[in-house]
Amino acid sequence: MATLARLQARSSTVGNQYYFRNSVVDPFRIKENDAAVKIQSWFRGCQVRAYIRHLNRIVTIIQKWWRSFLGRKQYQLTVQVAYYTMMMNLYNAMAVRIQRRWRGYRVRKYLFNYYYLKEYLRVVSETNDAIRKALEEFAEMKEREEKKANLEREEKKRDYQARKMHYLLSTKQIPGIYNSPFRKEPDPWELQLQKAKPLTHRRPKVKQKDSTSLNDWLACTSARSFPRSEILPPINRKQCQGPFRDITEVLEQRYKPLEPTLWVAEPIDELKLAREELRREEWLRNVNDNMFLPFSSYHKNEKYIPSMHLSSKYCPISHKEQFRSENPKKWICDKDFQTILPSFELFSKYGKLYSKAGQIV
Predict the structure, then answer these.
(1) How far apart, in whole angstroms, are the C-alpha atoms of residue 190 and residue 183?
(2) pLDDT tens digits, residue range 156-176?
(3) Running DSSP on this structure, what letter comes out for residue 195?
(4) How far apart are CA 352 and CA 346, in angstroms?
(5) CA-atom Rg of the chain in angstroms
(6) Where are the alpha helices (DSSP H) in 107-213?
(7) Whose CA is closest to 351, among 84, 3, 132?
(8) How far apart are CA 219 and CA 259, in angstroms?
(9) Is the pTM of this model over 0.70?
(10) CA trace torsion 223, 224, 226, 227 (10° rounding)
(11) 331 pLDDT above the threshold of 60
C-alpha cells in the first residue's frame, strides 16, 4: 500500500518527467530519421550510379563491336568495288588492244591492200592508155583537118590572086608575063589564070541618111557620133609632115563612148542579185537536193541508185562478209577465244554492290 501511495504521490511527477523526456527525445528521433534517410539516399544513389556506369560500359562495348562490324562490311564493299573497277579497266584495255590489232589487220588487209591497189593501178593504166590512144587519133584527125583547111585557104587565096591578076593572062597577039616565049613550058600561074574568072568590083551601096537619136549618139552607133572606117582615104594621099598621130586614133579618142560612174553602173537590185548568187552557190555545194522525209512514203516509188563504191568495177569489198568470215587455215590452235562479258553486263551484275556502298557512305 505504501508503495502504491508512494507511486500515486509520484504519479504527477512521473507524468511530467515522461512528457518532458518524450519532448526532449523527439528532436533526436527526427534528426536520426533524417540521417538514416540521407544515408539510404546516398547508398541508393551510389548503387544506381554504379548500375548506370555498368550499363554505359556494356552499351559502349556493343556499339564498338557493331561499328567495327559495319566498318569491316563497308571496307569489304569498297574493296569489291575497287576490284571490279580494276577488272573493268583491265577488260576495257584488253578490248581496246584487241580492237586496235584487228583494225590494223583489217586496214592492212582490205583497205590498203597491195594487190588490190596493184589491180586498180593496172586497170587505171589500161584506161589511160586507151584514152591516150584515142586522144592521139583525135589529134591526128584534127591535124589532118587543119592541114586540109590550110590547103583550101591557100587554094582560095591563090584563086583570088589569080582573079585579081586576070588581066595578065596572055592572048593570041601578046604573050603574058607568065608565058614567056623563051620557056619550054608555061608557068603554073598561067594555067591558074586561064582557069580563074576575072574579079569584078561592086559599087558600094550608098546608105540613106537617117535621123540619129540621142541614145545612138551616146552609144556611138551612128556615123555622125563616130565615123566608120569602112571608106578608106585615098592611097595617093600624102601624110602630113610632122610628128602627128594617125587620124583614126585621134577620132577614136575624140568620139570614144561615155564611161558611166559606179552609181550608174551598179544595178538597183544588186542585193537581190547577190542573194540569188549566194543561193546558187549553196545549191552547187549541195550533194543531194532531195529532202529527207523519214515518216512518209515520198521516196518509196523512187528507184534505188547504188553508190559509187558498190557500182564500181574494181571488186568492191563487202564489209559484212569480211567482218564475219573465218579462215581456219590461219588459226594458231584449235581452241576458241574466251568470251568476255561486256561492260553493261558487269555493271548490271555488280550494280547492287555500288548501290549498297553508296547507301552506307
Answers:
(1) 12
(2) 998 888 888 888 888 877 777
(3) H
(4) 11
(5) 65
(6) 114-164, 188-195
(7) 84
(8) 10
(9) no
(10) 60
(11) yes
